[in-house]
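thread: overnight batch results

M.L. [08:02]
morning all. the overnight job finished for the chain we discussed friday. pasting input first so we're all looking at the same thing
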Amino acid sequence: MDEISPTATPEPAKPDLSIVWHFFGAILAKYKEVLTSAFEQIQLAPNERLIQQGERGDCLYILLKGQLRVIDEELDESDNFLTFKEPGEGVGEISLLTGERRTASVDAVIASELVSLSKKNLEAVTAAVPEARRVIYEAISLRVHQSRLNHVLIKTNVFKGLEEDVLRDIQAELELTTVASGETIMEVGDPGDALFIVIGGRLRIVSQKANEDQPYTVDTYRGQTVGEIGLITGAKRTAKAFALRDSLLAKLSQDAFKRLLQKHPDAMLAQFAGPIIERLQGQLLGNEPVTSGVTTICVIPVDNSVPLADFTAKLTDALRSLGSTMVLNSEQCDAHLGTESVAYLADDDPKNGRFIFWLNEQEAINDYVLYEADYEPTAWTRRCVRQADLLLIVGNANGSPALGDIETSLLARAKNQKIIQCLVLLHDENTDQPQNTAQWLSPRNVGNHYHVRLQRMADFRRIGRLLTGQGVGLVLSGGGARAMAQIGVIRALIEKGVPIDAICGVSGGAIFAGLHAMGLDFETMLARVEKSVKRVDYTLPLHALTTGKNFTNALAYLFGSVRIEDLWTTFFCISSNLTQAKLMMHESDSLMHAVRASTAIPGILPPAFQDGDILADGGLINNLPTDLMNTRPDIGRIIAIDVARADQSKELTPFDYTVSGWKSLWNRLNPWAKNSEFPSIGEVMMRSILITNTQTLNITKHIIDLHLVPPVYSFGLMDFDKAQILADVGYRYALEKIGNWQSERD
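M.L. [08:03]
and the structure it wrote out:
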């Protein structure tokens, strides 16, 4: 039998159910008469067991008199106590809803009186009134979520750090509410009279910023808040918010906030208002981090050639290194719930509500849930899509890039609501460089795409970090020849076990970011760079000091016909659009052309052209684009390599506004002439585009987790023949700095 039967049999006299009705709240008032006969009275002697951990159960117990002890028998006896239950409290709510195995044992501390509500009795008395059954399931669901509120609050930026008594008072003021997918919770112009906390599900915030054509959108997930600014200021809403999926919210009204402010003024102002002010400051500076918030991922195969079970199992292992993770497919749902084909229940099936609650419960108790869809657009696949924060489309890179059946039949709704979609292409172990990725991206509306070799767990750990917003982004600055020190820094990062999940670069940094993204190791990268370095091809300086031919040929040798979307590691570089006076991000098309544009130093190299626009060195606008890396929701930490710091130690020869090039040449040729230190024209041009580096760094330095500044000041910006020496300097410097950083984090 499922439960250990108490020694006393139910008494014929009906118990006083006033505590029961209080337990469920006013929601059951109209169904009291129907439900009364569903409850049975139970008497327990001291130390008598009510519930045995590990056994299946489908009963809810409500304590009327006495006291119960809850223990976890998987722990040592000296440390297995969990909590006491007092009159008016219940145990077994989840088992009534799901039929799952009991997660704890429950004993009577003293003689106790209870009532039980079994699934069998509930269904019997509500057969003629199915609405009553639905209402009681909803009431129990809300109670379970209410009990989990504290767990969510302590992880919420607005509430974390508050004392336990303050959290308890906040929790008492919160009102739980459910919103259906697509339902709006606030419109522009509505009164700012409440704050909402996402307990489960996902909301989208849409606002129109001044001087911008496109609306600004941001998604909020479990543990995040919406509407806090209006709550404090009382101002009208400036954004619209609606549910992207069925969601559970906790609402804090303005009146409730005022009561809390009177009771806990210091705590509410310091620890509640503080994070909100920080967020506003981040918005004003334009460097507010974009967080992922993804907790539920639906894995969708493009076709039957995808080894879905193997892929999902390896991704699950990768996610478990980041947090508690559960993977669910249709068979596992049946096994967990002990019900055949439960995953394929119709939406209007009476059992469907209990199944949805169970799924939501798994999301609440785990950091991540992977929903493994079927190969076809079945009822289970539809449910997976509906539950997901992110849709992960998995294709075989050697197969057809055409849309699969699930994509054509089910994802239209997801596309309309802009649920995040990502593409993973699976490659053979011996694949040198992915190809034809553009053909996969063209028919799809995906935010990011990733290349994975099924045999390499490192690839799965990489996408696990990126999918959950914990990726490590590496940013490489420009700095002329000094940028070659970054080859050694990358070598040190790899040797120290620091992952590089995404990489970007500007000017010289774009070259080495591209080489790393191609998957080249240190030796290969350095050998190619040394082989590509040629003499400078000076020309009549009508357009630039050099023809750019040798440099362009060198880039063609380094990158060939590789496209950015075919790179193993997520990559972008930037250039300056001189025609439109704006920054350009290069995230697709030819890698060589993108790097050529990013490195086109005005006056030294001829500019690049794209769609009729003139493109020049990205360092003109931003020589260390950590802010751009910070806008990626898949990046959680940023490492920056900065080789553009000005050399303040070198003394230059003073001169009076005019310098004779002929005299400088003679001084260099004459062994008896006094050495004069004048900056060369190349140095002046390169230094001039690095001026913005310091200004940008002052604004964005707080978002950098590890800032590496190799000591390359003694090298000239044009010392392109010293790749090996510069790489060694960067390597030795970075080894020590990375080691210290890792020690501090430990």
